[in-house]
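Entry 14. Structure prediction run on the chain below.
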Amino acid sequence: MPFAPSVGSDIGETWFTRSLDSPFMSFAVDFAPTGIEKARAVSSNDGTGRVQSISEDDQSFISDVVKGFYSISGVPMVLNTSFNKGGQPIVETVDDALISFGELPINILALGRFLIVKSLSPELIRAEVMPKQFPIDGTIVRDGERLELPLSKLTSRECIRTVQERTGLIVFIRSELPLFADFLERLRRGEKVTTIRYRKDAVEVPSFKYLPLFETPDYGVGDRSTPTATVEIRHFRYQVFGELTEHDAIADGFDSLEEMRRELKTIYKGLQDDEWVTIYSIGLKQD
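Output returned:
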């Protein structure tokens, strides 16, 4: 498997002897003498690099990574390689990626707008994915019984492990909150004080007490370029969807339990009564 420099296509001849359009690592290019001194780790023994070029208008995750690393280090490239286990073909689907990720000694998989983490390493705290000390408490409600989760007394790592143990489910970390425009207006008027979120076979924890809120024109993820507001996460709880009540519906901005169930099943296709949802108690942060 070749190790290769992923580079912006506009870096010029400071780094390589010539420019080359090679988004699929198809060609090897000679490093310029000044370039190889600063990026020896991504060069082959013969002084070449099997370049993966990234166009100037590319909006991909790898483009953001290269630009971010450039701003920190002054080196406009990162070490990359093909995504496959030795002796196997390059991954082509999400299922391929997850299988290879499970078999390879790597810790984090970036998949679309998600990060999938095997081991909750301290590096995630330093990268500001979550705070060191988890800021919010939670609750599990099942069959009318409440189990309080004093998570604000734990580190973020301990928090996630606790939620995994208590629920037996996958834990997603929510770092932003998209909200349909009509629901946002209800939130502004004080008619909505919770938001209910569903993930198949999983529950969520918020990454921080305050999250960026993005107004959306429908139930999709919408445009994430500029936050509309900042939302405060005051508490969260896990509950089976079929056990939600009329009170839960009113708190979420609906007129009735029937309306809430209908709308949430429209938003979340396949949501069943015996599945878990995460319910956030929220409010808009005042400037």
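The two ends are 51 Å apart (CA to CA).
Filed with the rest of this week's runs.
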